[in-house]
Amino acid sequence: MHLPYPSQGTLPTAQRHAARPRANLQTGRRWACALLGGLLGLSGLGMTTPLRAEAAASEHVVLVSIDGWAHHYWEDPKCHMPTIKALAAKGAVAKRMQCSFPTVTWTNHTTLVTGVHPGKHGVLANDYWDRAQWKKIPLIPDPIFNKEEIVKSPTIYDVVKQAGGVTAAVIWPASRGASTLDWTVPDVFDQALFEKYSTPQLLAEAKALGIPYEKQMEWCKLGNPGKAPRDYLYSQLAQHLLKTKKPRFLALHLVSLDSFEHAHGRQVPEAYWAANDSDNRVADLMRACAEAGILEKTTFVITTDHGFISYDKVINPNVTLRGMGLQKTTLGRSLDRSSRVFAMGQGGACMVYVLDEANKTQILKDITPRLAELEGVETVVPSQEFASKLGHLTAAQDPREPDLVLSAADGYTFGDSLSDTQVISRQEGVKGAHGYLQSHPHMHGCFVISGAGIKAGAKLGDINNVDVAPTMARLLGLQMPASDGRVLSEALEQP
Ligand SMILES: [Zn+2]
Questions:
Q1: Distance, CA 104 to ligand 1 centroid (Å)?
Q2: What are the tens digits of pLDDT across the range 299-328?
Q3: DSSP 3-state helix, strand, coil percentages of the chain (rounded to 5)?
Q4: How far is CA 486 from the centre of its chain?
Q5: What spatial distance separates the first Cα and last Cα of the chain, rounded to whole Å?
Q6: Does residue 278 share a domain with residue 318?
Q7: What's the 66 CA to ligand 1 centre distance in angstroms?
Q8: Contacts (Cβ under 8 Å, ≥6 apart) of 298
């Protein structure tokens, strides 16, 4: 069976994006085939008719993700963020927002726009192990696949576009080449890819205005010193779109807070600075809406993809697996083909792939207790519990899924370098990580919704990030009936 990707052929075709390389299509088809025969089916994907709900309470929704904006910042007096706090005072704020597992960037940005758990939307982690190609395939930062190859559920911008609305996204993860984005730049590092998958007219207008998109890769290569200029650049592009295109839906991803937390840990001076810089970027967008005359008709959704933990110890499960005779490396650099297990890190989570299919059951029996007793391993999730505990499929349903999942305790993260020799290695100084089980309290994120259609002073309690997309759809008079979440009606003026 070889089926096309779910969205292909059912959504409007953009003329501006280059065709996908054939090899990648084939790669994706393998697991698309497995998935489509599994849980997902095709319901909700062949969107030929826009789904309208009631009268729209809002004409424009602006979704901003501040990467790594953990819930503990909200009540932290050292974290100022005056613009967003003012938005919250006039709107609604969640106590905490639970994110998706693994609590990593690509997975959770996709949940925010689809409203479904990762097993359904298909962006399973920042990377996955390809059992056939015998290598780690990066999804971050969209170096290989277009959106239609990896996102298998309708997004809010698909639905808005289907209903005739103008759509825009500025470096939104897993949106590369999306045929339903009228105006976009992708979340990629490489300059050639950035320009190839950006809307040509947007780049032409940016050039005329002196918005320096040609600096994208140079600033990416700078690492953390390039993060604030990048957020400023992306905000300039988003402001231009709000002022001149007045999109019905615009999404913006801000990158600096996450990066400073990775480098220094959570709730440190660098992170407070970055959070406040992100707040300034939100103020930029509000000014642009005011200039465009749409501020009163716009709803702002300011949220995030995951929380953060500080750590100084790294768990290396591959050292244990090698000690058990289940893994061999070539010069500590590549995984020998005789290896039977590989443990792939995702920050505070570890995805364990059993590569010896014939003996998988016995190998899992052998390794599960050994990995569970490693210092710093807090939780072990067998594949029978992937659906109920993680919102994921099993490897039998999607071979990109692992066979076992580990999650670390506070203070630890996972490594997957093949050259490590110690099961636990200590870092010099403290760093930050995410990826842990979505139930870990440090992994919860912030969520603020304010503006058109939102009740002032509403308190939302604990919410889930699958609730965000259907709520945005409802505000725009649309529906996302396949969502795993609910409309946050307690925040709406007209529930
Ligand atoms: Zn992130």
A1: 5
A2: 999 999 999 999 999 999 999 999 999 999
A3: 35, 20, 45
A4: 19
A5: 44
A6: no
A7: 8
A8: 58, 59, 60, 61, 62, 289, 451, 452
Ligand 1 centroid to Cα of residue 305, in Å, is 5
Q: Ligand 1 centre and the CA of 342: distance in Å? A: 24
Q: Rounded to the nearest whole angstrom, what is the distance from the C-alpha of residue 227 to the centroid of ligand 1?
A: 13
Q: Rounded to 10 degrees, what is the CA torsion of 201, 203, 207, 211?
A: 130
pLDDT digits (tens, 9 = 90+) for 461-492: 999 999 999 999 999 999 999 999 999 999 99
Supply the angle between the helices 256-264 and 269-292 in degrees, to the nearest 10. Answer: 180
**Burial (Cβ within 10 Å: 0-12, 13-18, ≥19) of residue 105:** buried
- Return the exposure string of 356-392: e unless at least 16 CB atoms fall within 10 Å of the residue's CB, then b: eeeebeebbeebbeebeebebbebbbebeebeebbbb
pTM (2 decimals)?
0.90
For residue 400, how far is its CA from the centre of ligand 1 (angstroms)?
A: 21
Residue 383 falls inside a structural domain: yes
Domain limits at 193?
Answer: 25-124+140-308+440-491
Alpha-carbon span 209 to 203, nearest angstrom = 10
Tell how far CA 76 is from the center of its chain. 25
Going from the Cα of 430 to the center of ligand 1, the distance in angstroms, rounded, reads: 18
Check which CATH number belongs to the domain holding 68 and give it. Answer: 3.40.720.10
**Does 76 lie in the same domain as 53?**
yes
